[in-house]
Write a structure and sequence with these properties.
375 residues, alpha/beta, two-stranded antiparallel sheet, ten-stranded mixed sheet
């Protein structure tokens, strides 16, 4: 009987959240999978999916033999033991670059939680231990696609993959068109249409224009934006986050993915001072807004929940790119249920089915807990 009650409670809760999700909830994008396992490993991508992320975000670089490797940096040192496995294969700056290794060589590396190159300090100290004796490997874009499609089939869900193309200009210096390689890989899976569960993004905005106009891709495109001084690409983000820049972008992309500091102004202590016009301009031109990166273990201000709340209800973003999709989802769903019940109290004409589903969930949960304590 207890098992039945638990099943009923879970089912009703799922139905409730599924119902309200479609009406209110922003999209949650699992940045590099999740924060809980080494970034971009197949394990953390699967964990992001299991935690309920609507979209799992990955990054890709090209290897020496033109294989699309799922890794954030164009070098290997921050997340692998490459210096131990391949001594002397570094470039003049001391770093070992993905493009200098074949897939077979890259498969020999152990992947670990992100560290600072050369000194080995873990970037986020309280995350999965970088020295843990657990084996993780680099994967390919093909494997990430297979994982997504396999999980969608097994679960009946329709989650999506957000593929960030890393530094197209850098790859071009090696006579490699990484965007063409990505599109060819996707075509092999018949993933070519706007409605397919694939999105492409990059910081090099002119590359997005190339993908749309010259490579004729129909896939959805997101424009990443950061500070010009970081030199992530040759794109002028100061222009593209102006009203004119947004208008130009709206003919090419479906969304912008800006640094969250472009949407909100903070003081030196991380307190919110107000917001910029960027979200309003994007919405004016029918672009969605997905700021990055929301991390529960590294954020401005004193409350992660208040930060999410402000971006959701004041800035009116369409979603969150986050290392902690489970935390963001849990908060959003909690607020939805609370707001729905309060709204029904003041507005009796609210959908009776939605209100009833919430009440049924709460009553079923109470019944289940009473069984536990009574028996």
């Amino acid at each position: 009987m207890m098992i039945f009650q638990l099943w009923l409670s879970t089912l009703l809760l799922f139905c409730t959240l599924k119902d309200v999700q479609g009406r209110y909830r922003p999209t949650v994008i699992g940045h590099r999978g999740t924060a809980y396992l080494p970034e971009l490993s197949l394990a953390t991508q699967a964990m992001g999916y299991a935690y309920g992320a609507d979209i799992v975000e990955i990054d890709v670089c090209l290897s020496q033999d033109d294989q699309l490797i799922v890794i954030h940096d164009i070098y290997l040192d921050a997340v692998s033991d490459v210096a131990e496995v391949f001594p002397g294969r570094n470039q003049s700056d001391g770093l070992h670059y993905v493009i200098d290794f074949t897939l077979e060589e890259l498969r020999r590396l152990n992947i670990h939680e992100r560290t600072i190159p050369f000194n080995g300090t873990q970037r986020f100290p309280l995350r999965f231990p970088s020295n843990a004796n657990v084996s993780f490997r680099l994967s390919t874009l093909n494997e990430s696609i297979e994982l997504l499609l396999g999980l969608n089939r097994a679960t009946g869900q329709q989650r999506q993959l957000l593929i960030e193309i890393k530094k197209p200009e850098y790859h071009f210096l090696y006579n490699k068109s990484i965007s063409s390689s990505v599109l060819r890989t996707l075509e092999a899976y018949n993933l070519t249409k706007y409605t397919d569960p694939i999105i492409i993004q990059t910081f090099h905005i002119e590359e997005l224009i190339h993908i749309r106009q010259n490579l004729r891709s129909e896939l959805r495109l997101f424009a990443l934006m950061t500070w010009n001084y970081i030199n992530e690409s040759s794109s002028n983000y100061d222009f593209y986050r102006s009203r004119e820049g947004i208008r130009n972008l709206s003919t090419v992309v479906q969304a912008i993915a800006p640094l969250h500091e472009f949407l909100v102004n903070y003081d030196s202590n991380g307190a919110i001072l107000g917001m910029s016009n960027l979200t309003a301009w994007a919405h004016e031109y029918d672009l969605h807004v997905y700021p990055f990166t929301f991390r529960q273990d590294f954020f401005p201000g004193s409350s992660f929940e208040r930060l999410i709340e402000y971006f959701w209800h004041t800035v009116n973003v369409d979603g969150f790119i986050t290392d902690h999709p489970d935390v963001v989802l849990r908060y959003l769903q909690k607020k939805i249920v609370t707001t729905t019940l309060d709204h029904h109290h003041h507005h009796p004409n609210l959908s009776s089915s939605l209100y009833s589903s919430v009440l049924l969930t709460l009553l079923s949960s109470i019944l289940f807990l009473s069984k536990i304590f009574l028996f």
